[in-house]
């Protein structure tokens, strides 16, 4: 192998590693055995002899989520917890409902890229880059209408806002069986036990009483 080909092979290997989200599967399927006492990455496999069509099935994504909450949005997740057959397959789905002026607040999926399409209404959406060399965190944002599609890269803070007076509905596909969600405000201001207000006052460069007021909004 010439050094040129060797470098190319290395590059291909590096790319395939970087592109992988969930680990690749070693069999047709590995339906989650939720009762297993084995703790592993993902779920242990149900005996394939007992696997049924129902293990790959979910019903109800036609139903409107309840948006009567502080942010006016609701996420109906369809991941490995709802469909055991998604275990090891590296993919999942969510329906997001928005009341007028409803917000899916800034959040992160630690294990997945998200691709979202608007079914009804219009949304103002965006994501922010990680810290760049020039100290910048750049916002990429766009107004989406029915039928439009937008991508939120894995691990980046993103949001969706219904700035219209009608309800909005979107479907998101995610590149993990279990994407995870970190809602930034809740994680930072509503952890149990709370992060010290000394720490948050310094991090956010405001007085402690401002932090205390925000923390009070996220006490559960
Ligand atoms: Mn998301």
Extract low-pLDDT stretches: none
How many strand units? 10
Helix content: 10-25%
Beta-strand content estimate: 25-35%
CATH fold assignment of the largest domain: Jelly Rolls
Estimated structural class: alpha+beta
What's the main sheet like?
5 strands, antiparallel
* H-E string: HEEEEEEEEEEHHH
State the end-to-end distance: 61 Å
Under the CATH scheme, which class of the largest domain?
Mainly Beta
- DSSP helix count? 4
| Distinct ligand kinds | manganese (II) ion
List its traits.
single chain; 220 residues; alpha+beta; 2 domains; five-stranded antiparallel sheet; 19% helix; 25% strand; binds manganese (II) ion
At a glance:
With 220 residues, this protein is of the alpha+beta class.
What do these coordinates show?
This protein starts with a helix and ends with a helix. With 220 residues, it is α+β, with helices and mostly antiparallel strands. Helix content is 19%, strand content 25%. It folds into two domains: 22-181, Jelly Rolls (Sandwich); 190-220, no CATH class. The chain has a five-stranded antiparallel β-sheet with strand order 1-2-9-4-7, with no helix packed on it. Strands 6-5-8-3-10 form a five-stranded antiparallel β-sheet. The radius of gyration is 21 Å and the shape is globular. It has helices spanning 3-19, 184-189, 197-204, 208-217, and strands at 73-78, 92-98, 103-108, 114-120, 123-128, 139-144, 149-152, 157-161, 168-174, 182-183. Bound molecules: manganese (II) ion. Manganese (II) ion is lined by residues 107, 109, 114, 152, 158.
């Amino acid at each position: 192998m010439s050094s040129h080909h060797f470098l190319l092979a290395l590059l291909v290997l590096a790319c395939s590693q970087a592109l992988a989200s969930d680990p690749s599967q070693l069999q047709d399927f590995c339906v989650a055995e939720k009762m297993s006492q084995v703790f592993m990455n993902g779920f242990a496999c149900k005996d394939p002899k007992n696997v049924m069509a129902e293990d790959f099935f979910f019903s109800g994504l036609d139903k409107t989520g309840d948006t009567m909450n502080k942010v006016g949005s609701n996420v109906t997740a369809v991941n490995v917890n709802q469909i055991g057959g998604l275990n090891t397959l590296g993919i999942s789905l969510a329906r997001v409902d928005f009341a007028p002026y409803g917000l899916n607040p800034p959040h992160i999926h630690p294990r997945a890229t998200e691709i979202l399409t608007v079914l009804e209404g219009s949304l103002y959406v965006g994501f922010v880059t990680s810290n760049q060399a020039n100290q910048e965190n750049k916002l990429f944002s766009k107004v989406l209408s029915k039928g439009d599609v937008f991508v939120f890269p894995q691990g980046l803070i993103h949001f969706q806002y219904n700035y219209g007076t009608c309800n909005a509905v979107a479907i998101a596909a995610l590149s993990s069986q279990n994407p995870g969600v970190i809602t930034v405000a809740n994680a930072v201001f509503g952890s149990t036990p709370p992060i010290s207000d000394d720490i948050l006052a310094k991090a956010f460069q405001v007085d402690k009483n401002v932090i205390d007021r925000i923390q009070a909004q996220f006490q559960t």
